[in-house]
Amino acid sequence: MKIIPIHVLENNYSYILIDDKTKEAAVIDCVDPIKILNVVSQTGAKLTSVFVTHHHWNHCGGNIELVAKKPGLAVYGADARVPEINFVCKDNEEFKLGSIIVTPLHTPCHTKGHVCYYVTDPSTNEKAVFTGDFIFTYDNSTLFVAGVGKFYEGDARDMYRILFHVISKLPDDTWVYCGHEYTKTNLKFALSLEPHNEALLAKWSWCQDKQSTVPSTIAQEKLYNPFLRVNEQSIQMITGKNDPVEALATLRELKNAFR
């Protein structure tokens, strides 16, 4: 499979996922349909699907125009607020993009209808997860590189369940493609908590000359993402909370105030 990150708006990512065998393609979180169609045309692939992580306009604001330009697209999501949705994803109910296996993971917290898409290519054993605004960013996503998103329609207990009973259960070599480019800000926050974390220092050094820092991996995030380290004594001491859910809530509050 081939994954093409596309920079949109100020710091968002859309992605194009292509099955190498059938040349079927999907766009994840369409914001700029003209840019998406231009990139797809250059690949020679056929766009057949749209995977939407959640209903916020900066993740699906291009759906109406895209469907108007490409009638018949399958638009997947788990929230009636998603424009043009015509396939409702059920948690862990697989479907395919060509030969690629797609598993929707319901991850309600940032929004109640948030979905992460876990994809696997049986021919190469490549694995990736598109996390939208779930975990690894600064402002309002679910999982971002070195961070997590704000709990708009959920709470810390929801986020803990998703992080430790859904996302972190994925194979360690799963590539993580998040919805925003917030890595440097996230790493600054993480360094304020664990300034001697060697994996964190190495990631900080690596990203200095990078305009794009995606993808990460599940294994990497476990080493330096503080939100995935709330069971570690070092993070619990910083937050003053022995309960990991309470530590997670405190971390989010600290991150909200971090500048």
Automatic annotation (TrEMBL):
| Catalysed reactions, as listed in the record | an S-(2-hydroxyacyl)glutathione + H2O = a 2-hydroxy carboxylate + glutathione + H(+)
Q: Which InterPro entries match?
A: Clx_II_MBL (IPR035680), HAGH_C (IPR032282), Hydroxyacylglutathione_Hdrlase (IPR017782), Metallo-B-lactamas (IPR001279), RibonucZ/Hydroxyglut_hydro (IPR036866)
One GO process term, biological-process aspect? methylglyoxal catabolic process to D-lactate via S-lactoyl-glutathione
Task: Report the enzyme's class at the first EC level.
Answer: hydrolase
Protein EC: 3.1.2.6
**Pathway field:** Secondary metabolite metabolism; methylglyoxal degradation; (R)-lactate from methylglyoxal: step 2/2
Q: Which residues form the Metallo-beta-lactamase domain?
A: 11-180
Keywords per UniProt: Hydrolase, Metal-binding, Zinc
Q: Name one GO molecular function term.
A: hydroxyacylglutathione hydrolase activity
Q: Which CDD domains match?
A: hydroxyacylglutathione_hydrolase_MBL-fold
Please list the cofactors this protein needs: Zn(2+)
Q: What family name appears in the similarity comment?
A: Belongs to the metallo-beta-lactamase superfamily. Glyoxalase II family.
Recorded protein name is hydroxyacylglutathione hydrolase
Q: Which species?
A: Circinella minor
Q: Name the lineage.
A: Eukaryota, Fungi, Fungi incertae sedis, Mucoromycota, Mucoromycotina
